[in-house]
Write a structure and sequence with these properties.
CATH topology of the largest domain: Rossmann fold
Number of helices: 10
Shape: globular
CATH superfamily of the largest domain: ANL, N-terminal domain
CATH class of the largest domain: Alpha Beta
Largest sheet: 5 strands, parallel
Structural class: alpha/beta
Helix content: 25-40%
Strand content: 15-25%
Bound molecules: zinc ion
Radius of gyration: 22 Å
Low-confidence stretches: 1-9
C-alpha cells in the first residue's frame, strides 16, 4: 500500500481499515519517520549510531525493537545545544517552526516542543478523530473553560472543534463562577476539562450559583490530562453530576493526541493507529505484549510529526490491551485507558500497588467528596499508606460506617490496609490542571 500525503489527513476510512492493511501502512510510516529522524536530527543520529542501528536495518516488524527507545531526558540533553531552545532535536530549519509549546516541567527542565504548520495541522487532525468519535458535530457549541497558555492543553481541541464544524467558545481568563454563567448564557452543549475540574465545576455550580449542574443541559464532556474519565467510578460521578456523557482521551505534548474513547464505550480508548504506533512492553523483561489484560509500559511513535519527531518514546505510562470494540473501528483498544505512570506503580508492604485503584474505591462511595490524597511514608522499616478523604456535607453519613466500608473495599481492591484521615470538606487541595493526589515520600 502506497503512503500518500493525503493519508495524513482526517479520513474516517483509516479508522476501519482491515488490520493487515493498517499494519502495512504503519510499517511504511514507521520506516519513513525513522529515516527522517536519523537524517535530520543530531539527537537521533547520535542515539542510533551509539546503538549500532541504521534505518536500513528496518526490514520487517521484527526489527522495530532494534530501534533504540527515546527518553524524556534525551530531549533535554539535545535541547541544551543550539539552536535555542530546540537544539539538536530539531529536524527542520528554525524558519519552518510556527508553534511553540512546552511541557509543565514538574519532573525537571521543561521540554520545548516546536511544530511546523503542517505538524500543527496534523495535531488538529488527531483531535478531529477524538471529537468525531465522541459525537461532536456541527450542532455543538463547545465551551473551553481553560486559560490557554504555553502548554499545549486545549489549543488543538479548540482548532479541531472548528475543523469538525462545531462552534467553539474560549473561556480563558474567567473564574469558575464566570465560566459557569457564560456556559448558561450561551447555552453551551459541551465542554472540555480535566476530570478534577469537571467535578470541581459541578461543586461550584451547586455552592456558588445554587444551581444543579444538570440545568445547564450539557450533552457531552471531553476529559483530558488525567485518567479519571476511564476510571468507572469517577466517570459515573461526573456523568451523574452533569447529566451528560463523559469521554476520555489521551495525549501528551511530545507525542500528540493519540487515543480516544468512542460512543460505543468499549471500557477503554482506541489508539489512533493511523497516526501512531503503540507498543506495550513487559515491565520486567521488556518483551513485546500482544495479548489482552497484561500490563506493560507504553512505547510510542508519532508517524507524521516532523519538526521534533517522537520515535519509540518511552512514555512511562502503563496500559493493557482490551477486546476489540463493536463500533466498527479496527483501531485497538487500551483497556481502562492509561492505567498510571510506571514510577507510580510501586511495591507497598511487598504488594504491587497502583494509585488508580484507590481512586476507584474512594469515588465509588457516595458519602465521600471528590477530593482525596494518598501519601506513602515509612515508619522504621514499615511502609505506611495514609489516605485523606472528605465527607460530603449534609449527607448525614456515619463516619464509623463509612470508615469500615472504605477500609473493607480498599483491602479487597488493593490487598493493603490504610491509615484513614477524615478532613473538613473543602480543605484538601483542589487542582485545576494535573492533580497530584499521590505522594510517595518513602525515599
Ligand atoms: Zn469503538
Amino acid at each position: 500500500m502506497e503512503v500518500k500525503s493525503s493519508d495524513r489527513y482526517w479520513n474516517p476510512v483509516l479508522e476501519t481499515l482491515p488490520r493487515e492493511k493498517l499494519r502495512s501502512l504503519q510499517f511504511k510510516k514507521f520506516k519513513r519517520i525513522v529515516e527522517w529522524g536519523y537524517n535530520n536530527s543530531k539527537m537521533y543520529r547520535r542515539l542510533y549510531d551509539q546503538a549500532g542501528f541504521q534505518p536500513d536495518d528496518l526490514q520487517s516488524w521484527d526489527d522495530v525493537a532494534k530501534v533504540p527507545t527515546l527518553q524524556k531526558e534525551d530531549y533535554r540533553t539535545a535541547q541544551a545545544k543550539e539552536p535555542w531552545p530546540y537544539g539538536e532535536s530539531l529536524c527542520v530549519p528554525l524558519e519552518k517552526v510556527t508553534e511553540y509549546h512546552q511541557t509543565s516541567g514538574t519532573t525537571g527542565q521543561p521540554v520545548y516542543q516546536p511544530d511546523t504548520w503542517e505538524d500543527w495541522e496534523w495535531w488538529n487532525e488527531c483531535w478531529a478523530y477524538i471529537l468525531w468519535a465522541q459525537g461532536f458535530r456541527n450542532t455543538d457549541r463547545v465551551f473551553i473553560p481553560f486559560g490557554y497558555n504555553v502548554f499545549i492543553a486545549y489549543w488543538a481541541g479548540h482548532y479541531a472543534c472548528e475543523k469538525v464544524g462545531c462552534e467553539v467558545v474560549p473561556g480563558g481568563v474567567l473564574n469558575t463562577e464566570e465560566r459557569l454563567l457564560k456556559m448558561k448564557e450561551i447555552r453551551a452543549t459541551a465542554f472540555m476539562a480535566t476530570p478534577t475540574y469537571v467535578l470541581g465545576m459541578a461543586d461550584s455550580c451547586r455552592e456558588l450559583l445554587k444551581m444543579d449542574p444538570r440545568e445547564l443541559n450539557i450533552k457531552r464532556i471531553l476529559c483530558a490530562g488525567e485518567p479519571g474519565a476511564s476510571v468507572p467510578a469517577t466517570k459515573r460521578r461526573m456523568e451523574e453530576a452533569w447529566g451528560a456523557e463523559v469521554y476520555d482521551h489521551v495525549g501528551a505534548t511530545e507525542i500528540g493526541g493519540w487515543a480516544y474513547e468512542c460512543t460505543s464505550r468499549p471500557g477503554g480508548v482506541h489508539v489512533n493507529e493511523a497516526f501512531f504506533l503503540v507498543e506495550l512492553v513487559d515491565l520486567e523483561n521488556g518483551r513485546l505484549i500482544e495479548e489482552p489484560e497484561r500490563p506493560g509500559k507504553i512505547i510510542i511513535t508519532a508517524f507524521d510529526r516532523h519538526a521534533q519527531p517522537c520515535i519509540r518514546f518511552d512514555s512511562k505510562d502503563v496500559g493493557m490491551w482490551g477486546e476489540p470494540c463493536g463500533c466498527g473501528r479496527t483501531f485497538r483498544v487500551l483497556k481502562g485507558g492509561v492505567q498510571g505512570r510506571v514510577d507510580h506503580i510501586t511495591k507497598v508492604k511487598g504488594v504491587l500497588f497502583s494509585p488508580v485503584s484507590v481512586e476507584e474505591v474512594v469515588r465509588s462511595i457516595s458519602e465521600l467528596g471528590d477530593e482525596y490524597e494518598l501519601v506513602l511514608t515509612k515508619k522504621g522499616d514499615m511502609d505506611v499508606a495514609t489516605l485523606k478523604v472528605e465527607l460530603v456535607p449534609g449527607s448525614g453519613a456515619d463516619r464509623t460506617i463509612v470508615l469500615q466500608e472504605l477500609s473493607r473495599l480498599l483491602r479487597l481492591k488493593t490487598g493493603l490496609s490504610y491509615h484513614i484521615e477524615f478532613h473538613e470538606h473543602g480543605t484538601l487541595p483542589r487542582y485545576l490542571v494535573k492533580a497530584s493526589r499521590f505522594k510517595d515520600l518513602r525515599k
